Amino acid sequence: MLSGQWPGSALLPSSRQLAADLQLSRNTVNQVLQQLVAEGYIEGLPGRGYRVCELPEQYFQPVDTQLYADHSLSLNHYNLPLKHGPVNGTLQPGVPALQLFPYAIWQRLQQRHGNRAALHGFADPLGYLPLRQALVPYLRQSRQVVCDEHNILITAGAQQALFVAAKLVSRAGDSVLMETPGYPRLKQALQLCQLHITHLDAASTEGLNINALPSPCQAKALFLTPGHQYPLGGIMPLSQRLALLDWAKQHAIWLVEDDYDSEFQYRHRPVASLQGLAGGEGVLFAGSFSKTLFPALRLGYLVAPRAVIAQAAAIVQALHGDVALLPQAVLADFISEGHFGRHLRKMRRYYQQNKQLAIRILQQGLPQCRLHATEAGLHLVLEFPQPIDEGQLLAGLSLHGIKAQPLSRYIFSAAPRYGLVIGIANSSQAELAAALQQLVTLSRQALLEQT
């Protein structure tokens, strides 16, 4: 029919004849004929068999791809990059020690909940209640967050929490503020919301420079990482936190606090959250389990004032529907039975040892370079004293399975800076040392070539 061998109104052979000619069972032929009827290619004639339908001539012709090339449909481009190259690798930032996760405990909890019919239906818009209840004492104790189970929204990862926060506090065309250096995926989420982004300097050891805060300011929100600036590691002192809260209140600006890895402070306890200092008002607090547990879990949360939490939940429903219940139930028990706390304590010691080893190797091998984010978190930043051929260095690292990220990826509007953001978590000490030695060798070559 597509080639025109069976023109419109032509009768097809009987199903018996087609089965014999094609050497197929008659049942198969009848199923095909019924499908062709359903799709409108043929019609059944009582007592006569099947007839080819009359359709426009071009309906049966091969698609002319040039036709669509000349008259292309419009698309909206957001300038969003896509992952490329190997997805995983050594020294990759943001990946915890996956080999040390207590999978046996997690599997046992999964088996406990796997046959619960209630976890395979629809969910509370805010998320699984026992998980929200388990999060309350953890957030209160570890980050002094003002919350209860009624103002915590479970999301499909922190990235979704940040996107929901952006949609909650702004509309397309509004202005928002974010840090530079900063989190690339946050910028992508803000671009997707079609917001005008102004970048504020956050490169000091104290994170965001509050002296650079605009006044007056028409922005709807400021997105920041005060507990451990990403990626340079600055920690905002209390006096500046309080000054920032006063500025935000004066200008009626929301603060969106991204608490991505505050659990891993190595010199002191995590500092109090902005949300807690503000009494829970005017601050949206986003968190994740990607770095404390594992990225593929895709669970996060957003703490918001009660006046807006329902709207935040409605945005998640429109965007994603329900967040999967089974992993929420498993995580709730993992937290409430103490496994989460024990795992955090174990991993804090492990990551501190890895970070100390990485600092020693990098300081010895590249003394002319500067290190950032040395006192907290799962990564280090190695900053070069001069420009390098970044593409050549990354290509060389990739050949050895090393997926450290270029510092330039995190710089948005300030003067260019050259370096590497290096994950220190997902490797044994032997693997970490070997990968870092290779990185040191290739970095030396890159610096010498530019000299």
> What does the average pLDDT come to?
93
Gyration radius from CA atoms, angstroms: 29 Å
Major beta sheet summary: 7 strands, mixed
In total, the number of domains comes to: 3
Brief rundown of the structure:
With 451 residues, this protein is an alpha/beta fold.
Write the topology of this structure.
Blueprint (H helix, E strand, L loop, with lengths): L14 H8 L3 H13 L3 E4 L3 E4 L12 H6 L32 H11 L15 H15 L8 E4 L2 H12 L5 E6 L3 H9 L3 E6 L19 E4 L13 H14 L2 E6 L14 H4 L5 E6 L11 E4 L2 H14 L5 H12 L2 H27 L4 E3 L6 E5 L6 H10 L5 E2 L12 E5 L5 H22 L1
Parallel strand pairs: 4-5, 4-6, 6-7, 7-8
Antiparallel strand pairs: 1-2, 3-9, 8-9, 10-11, 11-13, 12-13
Describe this structure in words.
Helix content is 39%, strand content 13%. It has three domains: 1-73, Arc Repressor Mutant, subunit A (Orthogonal Bundle); 102-337, Type I PLP-dependent aspartate aminotransferase-like (Major domain) (Aspartate Aminotransferase, domain 2, 3-Layer(aba) Sandwich); 341-450, Aspartate Aminotransferase, domain 1, CATH 3.90.1150.10. With 451 residues, the chain is of the alpha/beta class. The longest helix has 27 residues, at 339-365. The chain has a seven-stranded mixed sheet with strand order 3-9-8-7-6-4-5, with helices on both faces.
Task: Give a quick set of tags describing it.
451 residues, Arc Repressor Mutant, subunit A, alpha/beta, Aspartate Aminotransferase, domain 1, Aspartate Aminotransferase, domain 2, 4-stranded antiparallel sheet
